[in-house]
Amino acid sequence: MSSQNHERKRIYQVWPGKNRFYFGGRLVFGPDASSILLTTCMIGAPAITFCIRMAILIRQRHPLFHLLILIGAIILTILDFTFLFLTSSRDPGIIPRNKEAPLEETSEAVTKSLEWVSDKVGNAKLPKTKDVMVNGITVKVKFCETCQLYRPPRASHCSICNNCVQRFDHHCPWVGQCIALRNYPYFVCFLSCSTLLCMYVFVFSWISMLGVHGQFFIVLADDAILGVLVLYCFVSVWFVGGLSVFHFYLICTNQTTCENFRYHYDKKENPYRKGVLKNFKELFFAKIPPSLNNFRDWAPEEEDDVEVGSVASEVVRAFGTPKHRNEQ
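== S-acyltransferase ==
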C-alpha cells in the first residue's frame, strides 16, 4: 500500500517520550503539566486578592501610596506568570533518540576492572560507560539503553518524561517540566520573582494593616484578609526563598541539582566551575542553544529505518549497518 494512502503524522504526534504537546507541537510540556494549574492558583489567588484589597484602599486612604503598591504587585505577578510559562512550555533540552546503538558502541568488550566486578556480582548487567575529557578532567558518561546513545556530559535520563535531557538539573513537579539547559534561566527567574512577590505582599500587607491601629490583634480583627495574606506569604517565602538561595548557590559553583546530590563536588574537583562571575555570565547572558528537535517536522515513513528525530539514524540509513552490507 502506498504511503500516500495514510495520513502522515508530525514528530510530536509519534514522539516516544511522555511529553504533552499543544498548539501543533509549538508548546512542549511534561506529563504532569496539570500541576501547573495548582501552582498558578497558589500564586494567583493571593496576588489577585492583594491587588483587589489595595484597589479598595485607594478609595479609602492614601490613594497615591496604595496605587503605587498596586502597580508594583501587578508587575511582579505578570513577570512571575511569564517566567512560569517560559519554564514549563518549552523544550528543556531533549536529546533525539537513536533506533539502534551507534555502530562504534556495539562492541561487548569490557575492561579488566569490569570483568572483575562482573565475577563478583554474577550475571548483573553493568551500565556501559566511557570516559570523555572536560576542561582537562576525565568525566564518565553513561550509555542510555532507552535512547540508545551515550549521554553528553551533564545530561541525564528523566524517568518521568522518559527522555535524555541536556544539562539535566531536576524534574520539577510544580512546573510540570524538566529543568535543564534551555529553561533553567527562566526557572531561576521564576523562583526569584515568586520570592520577591511573597516578600512584597507580606511587607505591604503589614504596612497597610499597621497604618490603621498599630496593634497586632486589633489589626487582625479589623482586616482579616490582609492578616491571612501575611500568614500565607510568611510560610511560602521559606519554601520559594530557600529554593532561590539553593539555586543561586548552584549557579555560583556551576553545579546542577543532580550533580550536587550525586557527585558532591565539594569533595572533588568540579570540571565545570569557572568562577562566580563567569558562571553567572554563562547562565544569564549566554545565548540559549536551539532545540535539537523540530517537533513540527514530518515524522519519517514507517518503512524508513529511522527513529523519530534521530540524526544518528539518518547516517545508518544512508550507509547501512555492517550486517546489511555483508548480506548485500
